[in-house]
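Reading a protein record of the kind used here takes only a little practice. These numbers are not coordinates but entries in a learned vocabulary of local backbone shapes. Here is one such record, which you should read through line by line.
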Amino acid sequence: METVVIVIHLMIVLALVLVVLLQRSEGGALGIGGGGGGISTRGTANVLTRATAFLAVAFFCTSLGLSLIAKNEDRPSSILDATPAADGTVPVPGDGNGGGGILDALQEQSQPSGPQVPAAQ
């Protein structure tokens, strides 16, 4: 579902960019003014303006849809919450193993293991 919405979103983006670039500049900043053609200037402007408005609404709808899809997917809330354990399994938070966060994993690694050398006096 997400892939389909992304593909539609990208097609809308490309069409929106194309329609905006086809529109005639009102200020003529670059001195490039289109002229001639089969459709009058006013008719072309109306078609391109309506197409831009339609594509902008479609762009916002697909953007909202993608954000809702991303929000509702089952993923860990943070990449730091799912650190793999030494045996390759991912600890589940709240299972009694310290929460399974990255800080807990680092604290376990910093605990000395094996025989200890007494501190120098």
Q: What stands out?
A: The mean pLDDT is 75. DSSP finds three helices and no strands in the chain.
